[in-house]
Amino acid sequence: MEKRVAIVGMGIVSPLGHSVEQYWKNLIGGVCGISKIERFDVSDLPCKVGAQVNDFNPADFGLENSVIRKMDRFAMFALAASLQAFKQSGLNSEEGGNIDPFRLGVYIGSGIGGYSSNYEGNVKMHLEGPKWVSPNFIPTIIPNTACGHVAIRTRAYGPSINITNACASSTHSIGEAYRAIKHGYADAIIAGGSEACLIRMSLASFGNMRALSRKEDPLNASLPFSADRDGFVLGEGAGIVILEEWEHAKARGANILAEIVGYGASTDAYHTTAPRPDGTTQARAIACALEEAGYKSGEPIYINAHGTGTPLNDACETKTFKLVLGEKEAHKAKITALKSMTGHALGAAGAMEAIASVLTLQNGLVTPTIGLTNPDPECDLDFTPLKPQKYDGELAISDSLAFGGHNACIAFRKV
User: Fold this and answer.
1) Rounded to whole angstroms, how far apart are CA atoms 347 and 186?
2) How far apart, in whole angstroms, are the C-alpha atoms of residue 59 and residue 401?
3) Pairing status of strand 104-109 against strand 188-195
């Protein structure tokens, strides 16, 4: 028997705040989390701005110095967001608690993992020699280390899986966690993603690829669905949701925030970085999620778009929505692109956007796509330009379209 899956906790570390409340306040307020990069030299780089997580102190979330010394920034983000979400969920895996620790899992994705520590370790090896490489180098950089730290802290003895699927990593993580609970393999899973690769190397690589915006005005750099867009703005952060089997959550009196009701995945099998131009494979992932969610044509729908601000993604994604919903219903949909405010946090982006989708259902408000003053004629749907809009529907979806052609979509219903 397939089980229902509830969302009972959420946590975030982002350029727009280190709590769900602050994150939502800034999203609805149309606050831009993008700024000029000042924590390292960008004078010789093609891209000068980023969506940085500022004023982050891991000690504020109960992380001890002995642990911090052995963690990359991405793992610190993941643990901080997970502890927020776990606290809100009310779950307790200690002896005599309300969940069997062997039925509690961790699915946290990352597109790159400990990239900053990886780069620094390789520089040290090259300049100073092997004896100066830290013995903690490998356990610090591997992408699954975030899962390990979170499992240790929450006493999660159940399935622990790291998914590394570029920009779709955390959407896949949430979707696969949903399936694991739905089919009875776990009672609750800490799911989401984390990324912290805002360093000189990544800006040089993405910049030379011509994937990043070269605009130096932070308010005019990340422009999803705009005719003036010229690439994405690199961001960082973490988003975590706690998924729990519905009856298990009800039995312990948990506060259910929303229900996750669908998941779809597909692969373009077309190009390592460019999306399939006709949108057919991307549409399949969204269609699968909507079918599982019980969507019927004509039902109000909110879409949290991938919306990177790259010329290829935005036009293709618009076409994809029309393929899935039909021209008429696509024009009725309420759509937003959070990356106009948060930048693109790669493997963490999907989870950060999933949290915003749940908050949209809870509050009946669609966050704006800021900077959208000159829409691309090819991107002619309602992308909620500049100001938030009311939303009275009960269904929300969030899609992620990644390098390598990995597509994922998750669907939520209001409770």
Assistant:
1) 24
2) 34
3) parallel
Whole-prediction pTM: 0.98
Tell me the C-alpha distance between 352 and 350, whole Å: 5
Catalytic one of 47, 344, 379, 409: 344
Identity of the amino acid at 195: E
Q: What is the CA radius of gyration of the chain?
A: 20
Maximal C-alpha separation, the chain: 65
Helix (H, G, I), strand (E, B) or coil at 46: coil
- DSSP assignments along 271-329, one per residue: -SSSPPTT-HHHHHHHHHHHHHTT--TTS--EEE------HHHHHHHHHHHHHHH-HHH
- Catalytic, 344? Answer yes
Annotated catalytic residue 306: yes
195-211 burial, b if ≥16 CB within 10 A, otherwise e? bbbbbeebbbebbeeeb
Residue 260, by phi and psi: left (phi above 0), alpha (psi -120 to 50) or beta? beta
Q: Which of 47, 167, 316, 409 is catalytic?
A: 167
pLDDT in tens, 244-286: 999 999 999 999 999 999 999 999 999 999 999 999 999 999 9
The DSSP-derived string for 188-248 is EEEEEEEE---SHHHHHHHHHTT-B-----GGGT--TTBTT---B-BB-EEEEEEEEEHHH
pLDDT tens digits, 91-116:
999 999 999 999 999 999 999 999 99
State the pairing for strand pair 5-13/258-267: antiparallel
Structure token pair of residue 138:
């490998």
Which of 18, 149, 172, 306 is flagged as catalytic? 306
Q: Is 331 considered catalytic here?
A: no
Query: What phi, psi does 240 have (nearest 5°)?
Result: -135, 135
- CB of 218 closer than 8 Å to CB of 99: no
